[in-house]
Amino acid sequence: MTRRWHRPSWFALLLFAAGLALFLALARWQWARAEEKEVLLAAYAASATAPTQSLSPSTDALPAEVLPRVRVNGRYRTDRGYWLVDQVRDGRNGRYAIGVFTPNGEAADLLVNLGWVASPAGVTLPAFPSLPADDRILEGIYAPPPGGGLRMGGDALPRQKSWPKETIFLDQAAIAADLGSALRPRLLLLDAESGSPLRREWTPAIIPPSRHRGYAFQWLSFAVAAVVIFVVLHWRKDQKGHRT
Fold first, then answer.
1. Residues 43-59: pLDDT tens digits?
2. Number of alpha carbons in the 13 Å side-chain half-sphere of residue 29
């Protein structure tokens, strides 16, 4: 018997083309995600040694991948605050304390991430940090608000009557409406403070680029396997007495 190419059916050809296109698209997507994560991690690494600059309108116009270290003078709104809940760090569930800060001479308030604290189920929730009422100079990384959280059930903030309020995502527009004031488009990731019970490690807890590249190679291997299977199925020995 000799091997020869057997023309595939239209269905087999379409199924092969669709599967191959899907596997290659997923591989490209995972590779692009790895590059995005590398840019993000590099931005946080660069911010650690960046010189501090005054918060100004020009810092609001910076590209999202640029994370400047800024200094701002003003006062906390001590009667306002938010818990950003369901935030996992090192496999533990917790929450970020988000303060509201009014910079001197500015019309827009600034959200300040005060840090993370564990809040496992069944354990008494931590108290919101006590904020000073006098003028303060704050320093930290000026970063876009984090994503995350399923936005189901509408805006829950107006239904909460006591402070601090809880939210599973930071929607700047919703929080501005809740506060009744304008907000800066980013928030301040406050510098670490000795003795603070709140954890201030700002490198994002994300899937590392290496894992995304592993997923990309996995999808690419599926594409290669699809090609091999397609060829094996259609480059085969003729059955005795069978013609194509």
1. 888 887 888 888 888 88
2. 7
Q: The whole model's pTM is what? A: 0.76
CB contact at 8 A, 139 and 189:
no
Do strands 69-89 and 165-167 pair parallel, antiparallel, or not at all (unpaired)?
A: parallel
Q: Burial of 36 by CB count in 10 Å (0-12 exposed, 13-18 middle, 19+ buried)?
A: middle
Pairing of strands 52-54, 69-89: parallel
How far is Cα 178 from Cα 180, in angstroms, rounded to an integer?
A: 6
In DSSP terms, 137 is beta-bridged to 73
184-to-56, 172, 204 alpha-carbon distances in Å: 10, 8, 21
DSSP H helical ranges for 49-81: 57-60
Backbone φ and ψ of 165, nearest 5°: -95, 160
Contact 41, 203 (CB under 8 A): yes
